[in-house]
Amino acid sequence: xxxxxxxxxxxxxxxxxxxxxxxxxxxxxxxxxxxxxxxxxxxxxxxxxxxxxxxxxxxxxxxxxxxxxxxxxxxxxxxxxxxxxxxxxxxxxxxxxxxxxxxxxxxxxxxxxxxxxxxxxxxxxxxxxxxxxxxxxxxxxxxxxxxxxxxxxxxxxxxxxxxxxxxxxxxxxxxxxxxxxxxxxxxxxxxxxxxxxxxxxxxxxxxxxxxxxxxxxxxxxxxxxxxxxxxxxxxxxxxxxxxxxxxxxxxxxxxxxxxxxxxxxxxxxxxxxxxxxxxxxxxxxxxxxxxxxxxxxxxxxxxxxxxxxxxxxxxxxxxxxxxxxxxxxxxxxxxxxxxxxxxxxxxxxxxxxxxxxxxxxxxxxxxxxxxxxxxxxxxxxxxx
Length: 384
Known about the structure:
By secondary structure, the chain is an alpha+beta fold. The protein has eleven helices and five strands, in the order H-H-H-H-H-H-H-H-E-H-E-E-H-H-E-E. The protein has a five-stranded mixed beta sheet with strand order 1-2-3-5-4.
């Protein structure tokens, strides 16, 4: 049960107990008035207790009603301390739920009513130390309510700020995904254009040798079939993402897994030791898979350069039937690297994950069992 609900239930219990005790005192105490007088006192007691149930919604109105009912009860020679507790609850509700203007008006009314009661008491000789404590109690009740109201407002502001930050983070993530998809789309566009160009050239060559060299024509048409299949696969992936980047930029000409060694050498020159290991049976990969595998390794090594500090990087490329696995790890500070990557949601892990998922694979990233940070990606090499 939430705290606001607990507070409302507690208020209901207090008000009900207050009303019942007031009624019990009216009907059980020996009084000088008849049944009609008791009925009138009972009705007035309900008037200064039951409205407290809605003090959260109409704090100033309830305070006015309670003050008026208590004044009427004193005029009827009412007895008991329920009136004082009712006023305290009304004053607390005023500080807790009323606006600044309504709160000021209510406290002026409370002060006037208190003076109207205390001045005759002082004139009759009541000691000051018996009169002043009531003022402090009233001020304390109002101050506690006002403090709770400020806390609720501050908590609401913090909640709104957290929600706004969450929305901004989600928007930044969506923008990063859109950017990475646009970048992949440009690369796939180049691959499709390359396949179409090969098809055109091979078709021209095949038509020229069709009558004189059947074997050469057969090889040309085989190349057309292979390039066509590759082009269709890449075009299908390109249509899957359907992202248009309004600010296209130049990309490197057809990088691939074969260039990972050259990439590792450039990273070594930048000051990061890199150990490269290749296992399995190296084979040509589909163009889109080849480019994305290279980009994942490139992005992971870039993140290590940025965030891992003094470290050594390891890159493992494993060829398996129907897939290729990439593992990029370091022995740097995993916590630092992970925090830095997560604080920049527009780069790094988002782009790598998009590339892996585009080719029917997956990506895992996190602290390595032996320390440091590890990125593991699996990409399918089978046409979808």
